[in-house]
């Protein structure tokens, strides 16, 4: 049994999709990040960065103590290696998958996160920041489109953990008005993945669904919620105050 410490955002959805794909039994432990559930000392033992997702694998391959993994890219790689699926064991296919996986977790993901922050959470009037991040996301979306014009899946002919890392964020980009409109190859890829039974199961599960308050075009956090997400409470959790 794997514990999935989960908040219903694209980073959490990546892992839910992978767990459904490999048929691993898992228990969802939900966190309301506006409420600050991620800021407890107890969760800091699982992820010292106090962010979701994280997993605890109570039955690691080869036995032994439970294994804790945080960072969505590391979790996907761990589960791929444990199951022997969606990541080639060596060579060019493995290198391609890890390249695109890292491209998402180090590039598209964080840039999308900043675009979302300045478009949806920040006070109005941050034009330079909005432009900087939305333009960079657009550039990265063009990179993906060019790749998918030539390749069925991002890492080549086979569906992999790199696709699972990218797909949920492309789904949620709609709330930023950055949908799939002028990216036909990405649209084709998006629909093929959406129709996978494991993806449909993960996206359809009630215990994994995003609450309405996470998906508004303009977010209005109260003072405590803002502190939990971006302010003093968020920073105090790391220091252990
Ligand atoms: N690089 C991390 C990003 C994790 C992340 O930013 N998680 C967000 C939800 S998508 C979170 O926990 N936010 C709450 C907070 O920042 O306090 C990953 O890929 O797992």
TrEMBL record:
Residues 1-87 form the GST N-terminal domain. It comes from Sphingopyxis witflariensis. Coiled coil: none annotated. Residues 90-215 form the GST C-terminal domain. Signal peptide: none annotated. SUPFAM superfamilies: GST C-terminal domain-like (SSF47616), Thioredoxin-like (SSF52833). This is Thiol:disulfide oxidoreductase. PROSITE patterns: GST_CTER, GST_NTER. InterPro entries: Glutathione-S-Trfase_C-like, Glutathione-S-Trfase_C_sf, Glutathione_S-Trfase, Glutathione_S-Trfase_N, GST_C, Thioredoxin-like_sf. Pfam families: GST_C, GST_N_2.
């Amino acid at each position: 049994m794997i514990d999935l410490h989960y908040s219903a955002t694209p980073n959490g959805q990546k892992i839910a999709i992978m767990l459904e794909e490999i048929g691993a039994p898992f228990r969802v432990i939900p966190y309301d990040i506006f409420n600050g559930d991620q800021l407890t000392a107890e969760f800091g033992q699982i992820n010292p960065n106090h962010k979701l997702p994280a997993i605890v694998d109570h039955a690691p391959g080869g036995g032994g103590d439970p294994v804790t993994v945080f960072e969505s890219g590391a979790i996907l790689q761990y589960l791929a290696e444990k199951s022997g699926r969606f990541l080639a064991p060596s060579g060019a296919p493995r290198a391609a998958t890890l390249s695109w996986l890292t491209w998402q977790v180090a590039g598209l993901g964080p840039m999308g996160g900043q675009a979302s922050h300045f478009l949806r959470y920040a006070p109005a009037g941050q034009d330079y920041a909005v432009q900087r991040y939305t333009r960079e996301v657009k550039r990265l979306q063009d990179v993906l489109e060019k790749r998918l014009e030539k390749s069925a899946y991002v890492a080549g002919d086979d569906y992999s953990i790199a696709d699972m890392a990218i797909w949920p964020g492309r789904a949620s980009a709609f709330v930023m008005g950055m949908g799939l409109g002028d990216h036909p190859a990405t649209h084709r890829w998006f629909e093929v993945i959406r129709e996978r039974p494991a993806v449909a199961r993960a996206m359809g599960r009630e215990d994994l669904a995003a609450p309405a308050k996470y998906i508004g075009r303009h977010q209005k956090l109260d003072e405590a919620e803002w502190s939990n997400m971006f302010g003093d409470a968020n920073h105090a959790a790391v220091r252990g105050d």
